[in-house]
Amino acid sequence: MNLTLRIWRQRTPEAPGAMTTYEVTGISEDMSFLEMLDHLNEELILSGDEPVAFDHDCREGICGACGMVINGRAHGPERTTTCQLHMRHFRDGDTIDVEPWRAAAFPVVKDLVVDRSAFDRVIGSGGYVSVPTGSAPEAHATPVPKAVADLAFEHAECIGCGACVAACPNGSAMLFTSAKVVHLNVLPQGAPERGSRVLDMVAAMDDEGFGGCTNTGECATACPKGIPLQSIAHMNREYLRAVVKGGRGR
Ligand code: FES
């Protein structure tokens, strides 16, 4: 299939960016979207042009490194990661707009690459447990009810790709932060920091310049891992509970 790509090109964080048009030919419908960009980059390199910069690592939908806005939607027309999006979702002759995540807290580094270290700082403020490290504990040493384990696992699926922020008109990171808070707060291993975790992570989220939640729900719609919108309500309950209890401990 032959496609017209309009891609955001920006040489440096300070440089003005612009959409640049490329014609690509010979694209297989079995290619992933990133393989299609690899194909474009090979042609750009052969012709002496600068290849398009974009983030990727596992290309298996696991690491959360990839991410771009495709035709106005975070990760494109399918509810999956960009690396797992395949070209069969497009038609021969299509024009495809490709842009980086758009959010004040995710400044553009180059082309389609944005700085998502704000997420790392939110995680660092409370996304951990203070249990002793060492060899793996015996599986039954700390009983966890099945429903609680399932809830924690559902939220642990968040890969921190940032699609929730890119999709939100407010640039809010509430879905991401709530996934991390709920994942750890419902488990007995996460209980010692239950109060401080939610207070500190929400404060870090605000400090990084992410917007507030106004319940548009775009975040949950774009999330490739299906983190539910109810996570935000769960985090808000945890926050209220922590405030009432004075903010620290269980
Ligand atoms: S490259 Fe790892 S999730 Fe896409």
| Main sheet properties | 5 strands, mixed
β-strand percent reads 5-15%
CATH superfamily of the largest domain: Alpha-helical ferredoxin
Strand elements, count: 7
Shape descriptor reads elongated
Count of folded domains: 2
Low-pLDDT runs of 5+ residues are none
Enumerate how many helices there are, as a single number. 8
Q: Class of the largest domain, according to the CATH hierarchy?
A: Mainly Alpha
How does CATH name the architecture of the largest domain?
Orthogonal Bundle
Strand order of the largest sheet: 2-1-5-3-4
What CATH calls the topology of the largest domain is Fumarate Reductase Iron-sulfur Protein, Chain B, domain 2
What is the N-to-C order of secondary-structure elements (H for helix, E for strand)?
EEHEEEEEHHHHHHH
Distinct ligands, ions and cofactors found in the model:
FE2/S2 (inorganic) cluster
Protein model, in words:
The strands form 2 sheets. The protein has a 5-stranded mixed beta sheet with strand order 2-1-5-3-4. It is about 35% helix and about 10% strand. It has helices at about 35-45, 115-125, 145-155, 165, 175-185, 195-205, 220, 230-245; strands spanning about 5-10, 20-25, 70, 75, 95-100, 110, 115. The mean pLDDT is about 95. It is an alpha+beta fold and about 250 residues long. The longest helix has 15 residues, at about 230-245. A hairpin with a 2-residue loop joins strand 3 (about 70) and strand 4. Helix 3 (about 145-155) packs antiparallel against helix 5 (about 175-185) and helix 6 packs across helix 8. The termini are far apart. The protein has 2 domains: about 5-110, Ubiquitin-like (UB roll) (Roll), CATH 3.10.20; about 115-130 and about 140-245, Fumarate Reductase Iron-sulfur Protein, Chain B, domain 2 (Orthogonal Bundle), CATH 1.10.1060.
